[in-house]
């Protein structure tokens, strides 16, 4: 094992130890399925559309005209995580931001604990077909990155190019990473707010909003159950893209946060780059959600990539 691998393993182990000792706080959950601006979206992010799919209802924001770009968030997370970059992207593209089942306004599919990474992926497959889009660019963060990459593998003709931001699917499988997933998928998981404060390193106003949402809507009983189910499913064989991603031929931009202790450039980035040798990799001075922590720097690398 290399020195870099050892350091990253220590980071993950520390996080796992914190998980095993941190207590949980359960908040009341509102079952109302609506989109009031006072509780979910502000005036800069209008509640636009609920798409009815076979798998369940999915909330999207559909803004701008031109070639389609999907924005896929992490779990937990919601559409507002991309708030800082949607205005710039939508000046030249049709931007569709998607809220996964169990997050934001999108209701969970069945029981919250039954939702997982595969549920999220299947919802995106259905959404793409329902919107009758022939081809799109997909920008995905964390679990959203996994969905984007897997979709490009299984439906290559429908994907123009990829931007994978601290993408899941390329984490080396070992005792420590499996332990982290197991603990985060259990009743001993870190509270969403504390976990967000670990992986978000640049506390910009928007990044602070992400943490604030983690303290409120992502800390409800049902959303926490969904997030734990997602974590438990990360160790499934289908979530490991290290080999299947070799078939990806679309132009691909890999973005990693230099300060990200959850998805590491040193390990995850190395696996992804090996799987997709043609990909361009960029390191930003951020944590896990670079588009919220450093939106200008994010756009400076993404916009030229999309234009070229």
Radius of gyration: 18 Å
Helix content: 25-40%
Rounded to the nearest angstrom, the distance between the terminal CA atoms is 38 Å
Q: Which segments are poorly predicted (pLDDT under 50) over 5 or more consecutive residues?
A: 6-10, 12-43
Describe the largest sheet.
8 strands, mixed
Q: Strand-and-helix sequence, N→C? A: HEEEHEHEHEHHHHEHEHH
Strand and helix layout:
Elements: H1 3-21, E1 49-52, E2 57-63, E3 68-72, H2 86-89, E4 94-99, H3 117-130, E5 136-141, H4 143-154, E6 159-165, H5 175-184, H6 192-199, H7 205-215, H8 221-233, E7 252-257, H9 265-275, E8 280-284, H10 290-293, H11 295-307
Parallel strand pairs: 3-4, 3-5, 5-6, 6-7, 7-8
Antiparallel strand pairs: 1-2, 2-4
Helix pairs in contact: 1-5, 3-4, 6-7
Description:
There is one protein chain. The chain has 308 residues and is α/β, with parallel strands linked by helices. It has a single domain (3-18, 42-307), classed as Rossmann fold (3-Layer(aba) Sandwich). The protein has 11 helices and 8 strands. The protein has helices at residues 3-21, 86-89, 117-130, 143-154, 175-184, 192-199, 205-215, 221-233, 265-275, 290-293, 295-307; strands at 49-52, 57-63, 68-72, 94-99, 136-141, 159-165, 252-257, 280-284. Strands 1-2-4-3-5-6-7-8 form an 8-stranded mixed beta sheet, with helices on both faces. Helix 6 runs antiparallel to helix 7 (205-215). It is globular, with a radius of gyration of 18 Å.
Task: Considering the chains and any ligands shown, give keywords for the structure.
alpha/beta, Rossmann fold, eight-stranded mixed sheet, 15% strand
């Amino acid at each position: 094992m290399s020195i870099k691998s050892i350091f990253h393993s220590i980071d993950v182990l520390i996080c796992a130890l914190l998980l095993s000792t941190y207590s949980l706080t359960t908040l009341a959950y509102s079952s109302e399925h609506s989109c009031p601006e006072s509780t979910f979206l502000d005036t800069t992010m209008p509640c636009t559309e609920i798409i009815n799919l076979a798998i369940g209802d999915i909330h999207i924001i559909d803004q701008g005209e031109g070639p389609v770009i999907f924005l896929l968030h992490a779990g937990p997370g919601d559409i507002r995580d991309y708030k800082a970059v949607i205005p710039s992207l939508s000046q030249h593209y049709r931007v569709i931001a998607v809220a996964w089942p169990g997050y934001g306004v999108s209701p969970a599919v069945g029981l919250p604990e039954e939702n997982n990474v595969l549920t999220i992926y299947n919802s995106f497959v259905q959404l793409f077909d329902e919107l009758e889009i022939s081809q799109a660019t997909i920008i995905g963060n964390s679990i959203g990155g996994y969905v984007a990459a897997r979709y490009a593998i299984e439906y290559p003709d429908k994907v123009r190019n990829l931007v994978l931001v601290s993408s899941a699917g390329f984490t080396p499988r070992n005792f420590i990473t499996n332990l982290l997933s197991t603990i985060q998928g259990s009743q001993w998981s870190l509270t969403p707010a504390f976990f967000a404060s670990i992986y978000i390193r640049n506390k910009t106003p928007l990044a602070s909003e992400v943490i604030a949402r983690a303290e409120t809507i992502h800390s409800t009983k049902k959303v926490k159950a969904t997030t734990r189910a997602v974590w438990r499913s990360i160790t499934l064989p289908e979530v490991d893209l290290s080999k299947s991603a070799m078939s990806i031929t679309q132009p691909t931009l890999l973005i990693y946060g230099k300060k990200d202790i959850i998805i590491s450039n040193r390990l995850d980035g190395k696996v992804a780059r090996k799987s997709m040798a043609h990909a361009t990799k960029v390191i930003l001075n951020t944590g896990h959600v670079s588009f919220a922590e450093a939106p200008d720097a994010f756009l400076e690398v993404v916009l030229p990539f999309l234009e070229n």
